[in-house]
């Protein structure tokens, strides 16, 4: 949530309606971690770098305006999840900057922010609080959240006994009830069954109609091109296309 | 659901860059849930549950009392030795539990750290808070024991006890932030901290008297020993809960300069807290990558 972030200056070249500004972002990972004393000593003696590095994002810049729905597309390992993690603040970029306006809720992975040993009920409160809600507003929305997820019977069961679909239902339900201006969704709808997927999509359309900003990662290209107005394609950490969602899908298929 | 707030009202922010410990204060409700979570998770599937946190110090106390109080007969040279011993032990137990758990807090919460953003300082602070939950009932037991051996409350000693508790909490939080963040990169830290925690009880006048150290080591070592914030906290607890209940023990049984040493300990604890926060913020960027 941005409520706890410190205020920064406006990014350069930010449009008047911009919600998310990603400016020349690079993200470098070290592929092999040599951590034992022996390996550290060897690396020092040979003067070798510790493991080889890898650019997961290599100079990505983009702007998302308020109310836009953006599909982030690309093959496996192209850097989509990494970009969402940078936008949500889970990771910081190696260089470049990310700036936001508004409260953000990220569904980066199924069950993010859930603890397996807590019950569904406890997890709703914990996850709601992580996403920036206070106790009265979680309490007020609790019934609505559970009703949307349709898992009333299991709400007092520890979530480690949930199926992955049930996990998704509860997590999605909490996230859509936290009132964020920016919504990040990473490949999570795939584990829901057909009726629940449809319900989620309806809810996402509602969010869109309310003018919320959405960034969606999915390999379901048909769904995405129908849902989103704009599409961005990543290829090995580089942004190779930015245009309408339908054109983005076509571009990705031609890669 | 209400429509999103107008854009112009909202400031630009940098995701993942919070205000550190200040955010912990701001997000007390989340802290409370994390503390409750840790207590729940710690005692899941356990019949004795929270009672375990009394069994451990209880057994430890009996062993120390038998070995040192009776076999080595420290009972003979320290008046009210049971209260003396226990008032020092609760302080050290609070510190070691808080420090040990805070060091592991970020690694334990890897699933949360990796997938969702929240001020990460919450995890070590929640661990210190959990240690506090275990600490308070031990103080109650201490009070009962002290009253039985003739202790009556006095203002200044109790102020000293509060100060000592704050020193320990700040010190454990600062060290927990420092070692807890480094532990993400080098898992050796938690083993190192376990080792340090094992030694703590012997480096403060918990089991014996301070002057037994002073008479055995060079003066400068004795001074360093006295400036250890944990030693100061232990002596403040002696001053608060042990000394007022004794009859034949002169005030010189307490170390001289306790007031000055307390002020030094406050400064040391504050410096450690700030240093811990600074290191934590530097290393924090690697949490989601390395875990
Ligand atoms: N913490 C990390 N340490 C090292 N490498 C990482 C880390 N996180 C991601 N990577 C690497 O970065 C690259 C991009 O990963 P990312 O998860 O962003 O891909 P993606 O586009 O989401 O792929 P998918 O469609 O499979 O979800 C991958 O090669 C991955 O191995
Ligand atoms: Mg991914």
TrEMBL record, chain A:
GO terms for molecular function: ABC-type transporter activity; ATP binding; ATP hydrolysis activity. It comes from Quadrisphaera granulorum. GO terms for cellular component: membrane. Keywords: ATP-binding, Nucleotide-binding, Transport. CDD domains: ABC_KpsT_Wzt. This is ABC-2 type transport system ATP-binding protein. InterPro entries: AAA+_ATPase (IPR003593), ABC_transporter-like_ATP-bd (IPR003439), ABC_transpr_TagH-like (IPR015860), Bact_Polysacc_Export_ATP-bd (IPR050683), P-loop_NTPase (IPR027417). Residues 25-255 form the ABC transporter domain. Belongs to the ABC transporter superfamily.
UniProtKB/TrEMBL annotation, chain B:
The keyword Transport applies. The chain crosses the membrane at residues 58-74, 81-102, 122-148, 155-180, 192-210, 217-239, 259-280. GO terms for molecular function: ABC-type transporter activity. It is a multi-pass membrane protein. InterPro entries: ABC2_TM, ABC2_TM_bact-type. GO terms for cellular component: plasma membrane. Residues 48-283 form the ABC transmembrane type-2 domain. It comes from the Bacteria. GO terms for biological process: lipopolysaccharide transport. It is found in: Cell inner membrane; Cell membrane. Pfam families: ABC2_membrane. Keywords: Cell inner membrane, Cell membrane, Membrane, Transmembrane, Transmembrane helix, Transport. Belongs to the ABC-2 integral membrane protein family. This is Transport permease protein.
């Amino acid at each position: 949530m941005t409520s706890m972030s410190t205020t920064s200056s406006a990014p350069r070249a930010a449009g008047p309606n911009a919600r998310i500004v990603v400016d020349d972002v690079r993200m470098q990972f070290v592929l092999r971690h040599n951590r034992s004393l022996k390996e550290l000593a060897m690396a020092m003696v040979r003067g070798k770098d510790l493991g080889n590095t890898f650019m997961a994002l290599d100079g990505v810049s983009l702007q998302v305006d308020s109310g836009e729905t953006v599909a982030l597309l690309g093959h496996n390992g192209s850097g989509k999840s990494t970009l969402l993690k940078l936008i949500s603040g889970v990771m910081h970029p190696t260089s470049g900057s990310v700036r936001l306006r508004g409260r953000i809720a990220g569904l980066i992975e199924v069950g993010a922010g859930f603890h397996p040993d807590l019950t569904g009920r406890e997890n709703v409160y914990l996850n709601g609080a992580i996403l920036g809600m206070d106790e009265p507003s979680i309490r007020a929305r609790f019934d609505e959240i559970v009703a949307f997820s349709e898992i009333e019977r299991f709400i007092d069961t520890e979530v480690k006994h949930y199926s992955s679909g049930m996990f998704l239902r509860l997590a999605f339900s909490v996230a859509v009830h936290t009132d964020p201006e920016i919504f990040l969704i990473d490949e999570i709808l795939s584990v829901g069954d057909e009726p629940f997927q449809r319900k989620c999509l309806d809810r996402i359309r509602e969010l869109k109609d309310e003018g919320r900003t959405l960034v969606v990662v999915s390999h379901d290209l048909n769904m995405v091109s129908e849902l989103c107005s704009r599409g961005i394609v990543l290829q090995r950490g580089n942004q190779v296309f930015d245009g309408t969602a339908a054109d983005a899908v076509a571009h990705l298929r031609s890669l | 659901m209400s429509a999103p707030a107008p854009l112009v009202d909202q400031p630009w922010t940098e995701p993942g860059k919070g205000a550190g410990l200040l955010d912990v204060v701001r997000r007390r409700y989340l802290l409370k849930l994390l503390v409750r979570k840790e207590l729940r998770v710690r005692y899941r599937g356990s019949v004795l549950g929270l009672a375990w946190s009394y069994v451990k110090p209880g057994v430890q106390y009996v062993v120390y009392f038998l070995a040192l109080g009776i076999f080595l007969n420290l009972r003979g040279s320290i008046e009210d030795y049971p209260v003396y011993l226990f008032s020092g032990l609760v302080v050290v137990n609070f510190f070691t539990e808080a420090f040990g758990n805070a060091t592991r807090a970020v690694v334990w919460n890897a699933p949360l750290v990796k997938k969702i953003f929240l001020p990460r300082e919450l995890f070590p602070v929640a661990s210190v808070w959990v240690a506090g939950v275990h600490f308070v009932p031990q103080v109650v037991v201490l009070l009962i024991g002290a009253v039985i051996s003739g202790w009556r409350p006095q203002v200044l000693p109790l102020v000293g006890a509060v100060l000592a508790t704050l020193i320990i909490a700040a010190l454990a939080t600062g060290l927990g932030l420092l070692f807890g963040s480094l532990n993400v990169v080098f898992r050796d830290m938690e083993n190192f901290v376990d080792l340090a925690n094992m030694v703590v009880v012997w480096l403060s006048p918990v089991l014996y008297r301070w002057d037994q150290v002073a008479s055995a080591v060079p003066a400068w070592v004795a001074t360093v020993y006295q400036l250890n914030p944990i030693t100061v906290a232990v002596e403040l607890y002696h001053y608060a809960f042990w000394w007022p209940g004794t009859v034949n023990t002169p005030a010189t049984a307490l170390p001289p300069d306790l007031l000055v040493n307390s002020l030094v300990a406050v400064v040391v604890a504050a410096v450690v807290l700030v240093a811990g926060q600074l290191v934590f913020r530097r290393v924090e960027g690697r949490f989601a990558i390395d875990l």
